[in-house]
Specification:
This protein has 217 residues and is an alpha/beta fold. Helix content is 50%, strand content 14%. The protein folds into two domains: 5-130, Rossmann fold; 148-212, Orthogonal Bundle (Arc Repressor Mutant, subunit A), CATH 1.10.10. It has helices at 14-25, 39-47, 66-75, 89-98, 113-121, 129-143, 158-168, 173-180, 184-198, 203-212, and strands at residues 5-10, 30-36, 54-57, 60-61, 64-65, 79-84, 102-105. Strand 6 (79-84), helix 4 and strand 7 form a beta-alpha-beta unit.
């Protein structure tokens, strides 16, 4: 039987943290690696040798922002899913740009947390409907923005195009690293270059811009 996926919970509200732990431990494919309530404890948990597959993280923590934790997790090849009350565009874009691959509002969690985590592990990018709408609005605005100009006829290198295609196909960053025989940190560096060249803030936006301009199949 496969080992359950270890999950790190970073949530400062004890009641919510208890709910998250209980929902995860009820599912045979998931287990709680650690459950902490602030950035300091989360940083320590991320540095431990124990394996962590996904970090569930709130953005508003008592000693800092979850955004920095998302960056740290990303650099260690750990995927992050935001669990928060913040639904404004700034928080959404900051989290996605930092490396989050899922963004769920706390009001949308009830009864579906475990499956949402498994969807992310399978290569999806789970998002609350309101968050998806925020991104679609941004994409529509970007599509109509004639001021954006690509850097040359084809601004992406062959390796960048390959990585973006794998992202478009639903591959997680860690899976891309394994597939290409490079480190998760190197994958992240490529994705940062892709974002910069396409003036994007998320995988979804980068793929949309590339397809709109014929840079992807």
């Amino acid at each position: 039987m496969p080992q359950p996926h270890p999950i790190l919970i970073v949530e400062d509200n004890p009641e919510v943290r208890h709910y998250l732990r209980h929902a995860i431990e009820e599912h045979p494919q998931l287990t709680v690696a650690d459950a902490v309530g602030d950035c300091t404890a989360a940083r320590a948990a991320l540095m431990k040798p124990q394996p962590i597959r996904v970090m569930l993280v709130d953005l508003g923590l008592p000693d800092g922002s979850g955004i920095e934790l998302i960056r740290q997790a990303r650099d260690r090849g750990i995927e992050s899913m935001v669990i928060t009350i913040h639904d404004d565009r700034r928080h959404v874009l900051e989290a996605l740009e930092a490396g989050a691959t899922g963004y769920i509002l706390k009001d949308d969690l009830r009864g579906r947390l475990a499956q949402t985590i498994l969807d992310l592990i399978a290569g999806g990018s789970p998002m609350s409907p309101m968050i998806a709408r925020t991104l679609l609005t941004r994409l529509t605005t970007a599509h109509n923005d004639t001021g954006w100009k690509p850097q040359g006829a084809d601004p992406l290198s062959d390796r960048e195009r390959l990585i973006l295609q794998l992202l478009a196909d639903g591959c997680a960053r860690k899976a891309i690293a394994v597939k290409l025989g490079i480190s998760p940190h190197t994958v992240h560096s490529y994705i940062k270059k892709i974002y910069r060249k396409l003036q994007a803030h998320s995988n979804l936006e980068a793929v949309h811009r590339a397809r709109t301009r014929g840079l992807l199949d």
